[in-house]
C-alpha cells in the first residue's frame, strides 16, 4: 500500500513538471526534471535523482465549518541538504491547491501563474536547514506540488 501511495505521488509530481518552463539556456528541462543551479552551473536533474532538496507535508488540523464544509491545514517543509544556501526556489501546483480563502496561505508567495516561491522576508533557506510554509484547503486532499527550479 505504501508503495502504491509513493508511486501515485511520484507520477503526480511528474505530471506537474510537464508544465515546467524552467531550464538551462534556452530549452526547458522537460518532463520529470528540475532546473538545478549550483554555484552558477545549471543542469536539468531528474526528480528521482535530486537529493539536494525536498518537500515534506504534514497534516496539522482538520475541521468542518458551520455549513459542513471540510477544511484541512497542511504545513510543507522545504529541506536543503546541501552546504550552500538556497537563494531561489519555485514550486509548481495545480487546481488541487484550492485555498479556503485569500488569507489561507502563509510564509510563501503565490505567483500569478500559480507557482509558489519564497517571500521577500525569507530570501533564502540556509545550508543544511529547513523552511516551513502552510495553507488551509477545502476538503482533505493534499494538493499536488513539485519543485520546478532551485538555485543555490
From TrEMBL:
<dbReference type="InterPro" id="IPR052879">
    <property type="entry name" value="Dd_Spore_Germination_Stalk"/>
</dbReference>
<keyword id="KW-0732">Signal</keyword>
<feature type="domain" description="Carbohydrate binding">
    <location>
        <begin position="53"/>
        <end position="140"/>
    </location>
</feature>
<dbReference type="Pfam" id="PF09478">
    <property type="entry name" value="CBM49"/>
</dbReference>
<protein>
    <recommendedName>
        <fullName>Carbohydrate binding domain-containing protein</fullName>
    </recommendedName>
</protein>
<dbReference type="GO" id="GO:0030198">
    <property type="term" value="P:extracellular matrix organization"/>
</dbReference>
<dbReference type="GO" id="GO:0005201">
    <property type="term" value="F:extracellular matrix structural constituent"/>
</dbReference>
<feature type="signal peptide">
    <location>
        <begin position="1"/>
        <end position="19"/>
    </location>
</feature>
<dbReference type="GO" id="GO:0030246">
    <property type="term" value="F:carbohydrate binding"/>
</dbReference>
<dbReference type="GO" id="GO:0031012">
    <property type="term" value="C:extracellular matrix"/>
</dbReference>
<dbReference type="InterPro" id="IPR019028">
    <property type="entry name" value="CBM_49"/>
</dbReference>
